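A favour, since you know our structure tokens better than I do. Just paste the record in under my message, thanks.
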Amino acid sequence: MRNMYDVIVVGTRVAGAPLAMLLARKGYRVLAVDRASFPSDTPSTHYIHQAGLGFLKSWGLLDEVVATGVPAIRHLNFSYTDIVIKGFADTAADGIDAVYCPRRTVLDKILVEAAGNSGVEVIQGFTVSELVFEGDRVAGIRGAIGDGAEQEFRAELVIGADGSNSLVAKAVGAQEYEGSPAACFVYYSYYEGVDWGMQHRTGFGEQQFASWPTNDDLALVAVMRKRDRFREFRADPDAGVQEIVDQVDPEIGARLRDTGKRVEQFRPMLYPDNYRRASHGPGWALVGDAAYHKDPFTGWGITDAFKYAQLLADHVDEGLSGSRPMDEALAEYQRERDAQSASTYELTLSISELSLTPYYDSVFRATSLDADYTKHFFGLIAGIYSPDKYFGEQELAALYEKVDFPAAARHVSKDGVTA
């Protein structure tokens, strides 16, 4: 095993493994390490939007994910209190006509194996203890497998894909910016006898339940409430799940009671705050939740991990190939990531409080009254319809006129009301 690489990637889940794979496919010497051994589980929404599936397809991995038996989902059910929006996006440009929610034990193993098959040297069960510095520049990592001897590896670039509690981010002092406190907690588990399809239902009283089919004929069922109710909920989470589903949709609540059976332990999650971190510096970069995290409410974690792994790989290639100074290429990566993710980040933070602002209430309520705009909504969710068009003032003004929306409720812009 070589001790000198072009790139070392710390963390090999949905950001790190694709990044390592893409760089190896470009001919670079890549080492990827993770303290986990795969298959390995991790908290997740499981949801991959059509835009995210497009990356899997372009990497030659979508068919392998589908072959695991994860069900295709072609109808989505959203509600925000009394606003109901049902349907699906038009087929994406690359022919993807469904979404999938694979277990992370399944998805992450496929990604890690794809990295190894592409030439990445993968070390599982490896815990990084510290970064190696030469002056103020990161030059490598030190760590060990279990209780084994410490090993040192060096590279021109070390990339942290090691999650929100990133050791790499802490070691380089990556500063957070554009942050806000997390609003809610999440409890989820896996159930038999649940055949509701995909549900994303936010009810009165600032509470939500969601469910979607996953591998092994199971459904993930998740509930969400404000963080100040976490202690009371954890005293009896089974009763809490049933209560929330009953209150949001009594019919589905009855079905859960009659046929649903929880078959695994609950996964309680107090998510970290929303943030962006400075994501590059001398000899280092960050990707995935190590770089940028937002509330799981909109389920964009996996898709964004894929998207910005591809973006970072392209810019690292510029630096390693000599077509552009590495520091300049990494700075451009962060600028592009922030610009491309701005609308999703803003939307997620705006609606993850489990109550809609007057602006979003108007937009979604009017959307629910028009079949064409409903398709645009699901295109927005899928990542294949422009947020600038969906939330465009002219487009919304035309929608309000078309559905004869009450003039006093027409929040045409986020900063004002057109009455």
